[in-house]
Design brief:
CATH class: Alpha Beta
Largest sheet: 8 strands, mixed
Distance between the termini: 44 Å
Structural class: alpha+beta
Helix content: 25-40%
Strand content: 25-35%
Number of strands: 8
CATH superfamily: Gcn5-related N-acetyltransferase (GNAT)
Shape: globular
Amino acid sequence: MSQPEVEVRIVPVEGPGDFAAALAIREVVFIEEQRVPEEIERDDEDPTAHHVLAMVGGHAIGTGRLVELTSPPAGEEGRWGRIGRMAVLVAHRRGRIGSRILAELEAEAAKRGLDGIVLHAQIYAHGFYRHMGYVDHGPIFDEAGIPHVEMRKRLT
């Protein structure tokens, strides 16, 4: 017998409780699982970024954020954003939660009139982002001791 499908809602972070939930997910995924130093994982963009939570029932199971860039990436024009800090708790990683978080952040970027999105994809997630329409830009590089590649997607 198959399990009933669980309803997942992607909601904007509103207030300090939601923000604490987003940081808690990031702490588990990045700081504990991936050993990213806390001083790198937390940054000055957190207070002004647009954050979302993936919710099941009353529980936060995933998060991501959108930051509007002050200038476009090299070789691009227009207004661009950067998506990052995408994290889903391990028990929920096969349920297309990441796709839903990414789609919600892209929709927010489009609503704000941004022309494109840049992100730094961990190499293990490269195929996921490519499937979602992102294209590689540049060589593989190290970020917090983890191999990444810059990827971009035009929205307009």
